[in-house]
Amino acid sequence: MGRSLLFAVTFAAIVQAQGNDAQKIRVIAFGAHPDDCDIRAAGTAAKFAALGHHVKFVSVTNGDAGHHNDGGIHLAHRRRLEAEESGRRLGVTYEVLDNHDGELLPTLEVRQQIIRRIRQWNADIVLAPRPNDYHPDHRYTGVLVQDAAYMVVVPDICPDTPPLRKNPVFVYFEDGFQRPQPFRPDVAISIDDVFPKKIDALDAHVSQVYEWLPWVDGRLEKVPTDPAERKQWLAAERARPIGPTVRASVQKWCGREKGAQVKHAEAFEVCEYGRQPNEQDLRKLFPMLP
Ligand SMILES: [Zn+2]
Rounded CA gap, 80 and 75, in Å? Predict the structure, then answer.
């Protein structure tokens, strides 16, 4: 093949790849701790990744305080490696920001970290916790992402990172808090086919799911020591029944009969800030919906 023909073929391939990539949906999720995004959205993330879309998980703190016999730099390092391993297992990018665990505040500095991450990812969808939660880090992660929801399009804010020309859709993870208002499942996705993958991702967060969370719940002695057995235990722990409002949403999106059979789901509520999608938009943004 002549050089000019080779160049033309290569150039055409690059253009085609970029063209295809422009069709891809770009999702960024913010959790307060390494494992939060996984708990709320690993199944949905695995589905996006399997369809060739791009997903990034961001932990806003480094997780350096949530443990009973480890902490500081050592724990932060462990959590970063666990998050990276989870990302590998899911097929998503995982970034851990270096803010202290248990001390997160909705400051301008952290807001700017979030604005830059959303812009750099060129996000179509942004996921975050609602700002009502038992844990202050979860609460403030919700506030921080809400505070970024308009600023991502304002050029004079963080001028070192080009603003987005279209505001993403912001959605909240599911939670069980009732005040000031309960979670509203605008979208609910069956994750039955990727539930083992979600467990595989959570299994990477050893210091969380097999150590800290069982310890803080006073159930550490229930965790099996054998790696295969403890993974089975984790799957049983995470197989929680679907509540009536999420069930209704699953049935709305995938049909009454099919929806009645679903065992595991992840649900999301559309935030009032950012782009406001209609049902057709939601089907495009969540292409795994049947
Ligand atoms: Zn957390």
Answer: 9
